[in-house]
Design brief:
The chain has 270 residues and is α/β, with parallel strands linked by helices. It has one domain: TIM Barrel, CATH 3.20.20.
Length: 270
């Protein structure tokens, strides 16, 4: 199992040289802590020079484990479940940009917050149908690009639909695309799943999982709360999972501290 951590590049407000310099510094720092890669949370990936990004990551023998898309919903308001067809189309267009970027740097694209939330003009049923329809189109685009989409169950306090792993597995099976896999997040698992049932269920669906997010029950660095990471990660190790476990937490007291503490703690378990 490989280890990465989430970071942005501020590509929307920085020059190309600033973005590349920041990325290079991140790779150098994380390499010194025995990370295997980095997960990028991006708003406008089309602004980034992928050839130079590849040169930098390859020089550190690094991988970009996944591309986060949530800022598209947070900043632009585009979502796959929106009641407006125009807004849904905008979200799908943004996914295409992420797919283009991911194809060039050999990564995966996350479908998380970009699903959006429904408002008084819509309903949960309509939203889920819109998400399903939009996701089918995203899968078609992903298949054309040869890129995996990672569908993430997110807790009910942040999003309105597909909060649990079982709901998400059912959706993935219904859509039936070979380019749609599951992303499991320890924090959302802690909030949404039955602790007496979840460990056995995870053993049953490990074949659907292509990426993992790690945060403790405090949403801080692993080891700062009481989530059972040893049991959680051993399930995937025993199943032969060889993908990434990526730190996605509140970066306090600092990114550097979280990266260091997480690596030290998780290397004792992985």
């Amino acid at each position: 199992m490989k280890l990465s951590i989430v970071s942005g590049l501020n590509e929307s407000k920085s020059t190309q040289d600033e973005v590349l310099n920041h990325f290079s510094q991140l790779c150098e720092f994380l390499n010194s802590l025995n990370y295997d890669g980095i997960e990028l949370s991006l708003l406008e990936p089309e602004k980034i020079n992928t050839e130079k990004i590849n040169d930098i990551k390859d020089s550190y023998n690094f991988e970009i484990s996944a591309i986060g898309t949530g800022s598209t919903y947070i900043r632009f308001g585009y979502s796959l479940g929106h009641q407006s067809e125009h807004i849904r189309e905008k979200a799908i267009q943004r996914i295409q940009n992420y797919l283009d970027f991911a194809q060039k740097i050999q990564s995966k694209v996350i479908i998380g917050l970009i699903r959006g939330r429904f408002n008084f003009e819509s309903s949960l049923k309509k939203e889920k149908n819109n998400i399903k329809s939009s996701l089918k189109e995203c899968c078609r685009l992903a298949e054309n690009n040869g890129v995996l989409l990672l569908f993430e169950p997110i807790n009910r306090f942040e999003i309105d639909s597909y909060n649990t792993i079982s709901e998400s597995v059912n959706l993935i099976e219904e859509i039936g695309s070979k380019n749609l896999k599951l992303l499991i997040d320890s924090f959302h698992t802690y909030l949404e799943e039955d602790p007496g049932y979840i460990w056995d269920y995870l053993e049953e669906i490990t074949q659907n999982v292509a990426h993992i997010h790690l945060a403790d029950c405090t949403r801080r660095a692993p080891g700062t709360g009481h989530f059972d990471f040893r049991t959680f990660l051993n399930i995937f190790k025993k199943a032969g999972y060889d993908g990434f476990a990526s730190i996605e937490t509140i970066m306090k007291p600092s990114f550097e501290d979280v990266a260091k503490e997480s690596s030290e703690y998780l290397r004792l378990i992985l």
